[in-house]
Amino acid sequence: xxxLRVWIAAGLLCAIVLLSCFSAAAVRKSCTLxxxxxxxxxxxxxPAAAIxxxxxxxxxxxxxxxLFVPNQPLTELNTAILRLDALYAVQSDALxxxxxxxxxxxxxxxxRELTAF
Length: 117
Hints:
This protein has four helices and no strands. The protein is mostly helical and 117 residues long. Helix 1 runs antiparallel to helix 2, helix 1 runs antiparallel to helix 4 and helix 3 runs antiparallel to helix 4. The radius of gyration is 19 Å and the shape is elongated. The model has no long low-confidence stretch (mean pLDDT 90).
């Protein structure tokens, strides 16, 4: 009986450690992909297509990020990313600043996740 409890405790401990490692790796990968997409918009010849690709990537990656990152920074990122189409449509000078802000927020989330791990 005592041996069974030890095995259960060891199994739970391993599951917690594996989940922590998975969350750090998943957040790091998602943020890296989104940062690359953001930088692609900055250097794109056709920013409209690059913004569309960034928005689609954000919708794919945000589902996973919502599992491991608090809601506040993700809500702000969602607002900033969805605002890009409007900024491009009016040819705003704020578009590069907004993209740099998105990249900075993603780098902060990625770094915060690794320090928490």
